[in-house]
Amino acid sequence: MLKEVIATRYITPLREGGSLPGLVEADDLRTYVMKFTGAGQGRKTLVAEVICGELARRLGLRVPGLVTIGLDPVLGLGEPDPEVQELLKASGGRNLGMDFLSRAIGFDALAHRVSPREAGRTVWFDALVNNVDRSWRNPNMLVKQGELWLIDHGATLIWHHNWPGARASAAKPYDASDHALAPFGPEVGAAAAELAPLVTEKLLAEVTAEIPDEWLVDEPGFDTPDAVRHAYAEPLLTRAAVIHERIEGIEGAK
Questions:
Q1: How far out from the chain centre does Cα 41 lie?
Q2: Is there a contact between 126 and 253 (Cβ–Cβ < 8 Å)?
Q3: Are 127 and 174 within 8 A, CB to CB?
Q4: What's the pTM value of the predicted model, to 2 decimals?
Q5: Mean pLDDT computed over 70-86
Q6: Cβ distance 238 to 170 under 8 Å?
Q7: pLDDT of 12-51, one tens digit each?
Q8: Distance of CA 54 to the CA centre of its chain
């Protein structure tokens, strides 16, 4: 399971994110970017972050470390911003934290170079999880000491918003024409050959096991949290084997 910490101080909101994440300090004296269960997109955003973050890490991609953060709503009492105060009050209990990458800067395709191999691995991974939020307008990537880090995976796994149609949704092609790394000649075929065999039933069971039960209970159509975990893993297992053949918008992607 993910490491558990307790939020001790709310530092500031990060208004770049649509769900208003915040910078917090925890009882382990570390600083985290915190995403809240009480945000408009709810717990499914946090589930997607866990699955994508832990899967990316196991595939050798750079992503910030994840923790769960216990939040006492009392931290919101002294917050002057009414929107932030309401968010903190609505998010008591377990939330999600990501390591704060200090001194990292936003990725800029004009200022940073990415090798075709790394671009291919990233595009393949984004196709696997159907990440629609890695465009040149909003890359959701950081650069620290010359290394590329992937962040913000809340807009992935879109089939979990309609479970009855999940299989059909997961079978759809992935349009990478607008991807932030499309200009770098992504070697998607090589990435698929390297990464697809790693996406096994066992690996996905390990990844989905990191999701706290309370983010999965009462999901319509499922009796147990483990049933929901299986529903998340099944499309990814199927998709991993074939998604490189369904990536559109990049010349030579297949």
A1: 13
A2: no
A3: yes
A4: 0.95
A5: 89
A6: yes
A7: 998 765 678 999 999 999 999 999 999 987 899 999 999 9
A8: 9
